[in-house]
Amino acid sequence: MRQEGQPVSWQPRSQSDQDAERSNQSSFWGEGAWISGGVVLVTLASLPLLFGLSGTLIVGVALTAFGLVGAIDRWLEKRRAVHGPRSSDDAAVIAMSPVLLARSLGATIAALAVGALLPYLIWIIVSYAHDGSVQWGWPTQIATALRVQRSSFWLSDPAGAIIVWALAAVMVVTAWLMPFASDLRVGVSRSMRSLIRPVWGRGILVIVCVGFLLISWMVGTGGMSH
Questions:
Q1: Contacts 24+ apart (CB under 8 A), 91-100
Q2: Residues 6+ apart with CB under 8 A from 210
Q3: How many CA atoms does the CB half-sphere of 193 hold within 13 Å?
Q4: Alpha carbons 207 and 205: distance in angstroms, whole number
Q5: Second label for 220, Cα 20 to 30 Å away, from 50, 86, 96, 192?
Q6: What is d(CA 222, CA 166) in angstroms, rounded to the nearest whole number?
Q7: What distance separates the 2 farthest-apart alpha carbons in the chain?
Q8: What is d(CA 101, CA 72) in angstroms, rounded to the nearest whole number?
Q9: What does 51-110 look like in DSSP terms, one character per residue?
């Protein structure tokens, strides 16, 4: 109970807010979820280069879903920190979902735009150095192609493929780490922890993702024997 003369702001709400924030942080850093989440995002970043438009759509759906999960989780944590668990929580989440989706989607798009700045600058330099001219629209052409043509040096050469895959990964991971992309960050880690609860299970997921990237690179480029 609040003692006489004590400000209302002293109420346990502030402590609850801190607990909610710590819970969100632990969902990101705890039990290696951030490692498996980061590896999954790196794997997703390769899909547009492998499958063109189909891969881009998969990435879009995945990032949207992760962002929505994170937005709902963070909003529900704050609601419960203030009011405590209520029977109306589920209904409130459903009612707020469109707003949370719009918020998380806007933050994710902005984070991707910021994350693309450095990789695109590097792309301008390396494409000019190799091709003699800047391939301004090549990344977009590949990401929106119905069928990826692998005759390009950047997809058929082992070193070229590593460069463009690395740039795509840097873009997505940088977006994930943006301070204003908390919904995406929390959503990815929360999904990892919810869908694959054992730590060893997330370790296997990391191995599978790395194996997928390695096999895709070897099949697409011929590997080091190219």
A1: 96/72, 97/68, 97/72, 100/68, 100/71, 100/72, 100/75, 100/183
A2: 39
A3: 20
A4: 5
A5: 192
A6: 18
A7: 79
A8: 9
A9: HTHHHHHHHHHHHHHHHHHHHHHHHHHHHHHHH---TTHHHHHHHHHHHHHHHHHHHHHH
pTM (2 d.p.): 0.82
The token duo for 153 is 């040096």
pLDDT attached to residue 31:
56
CA distance 67 to 61: 10
pLDDT tens track for 96-125: 999 999 999 999 999 999 999 999 999 999
Ranges under pLDDT 50 in the chain = 1-20, 24, 26-29
Instruction: Return the structure tokens found at 196.
Output: 């694959």
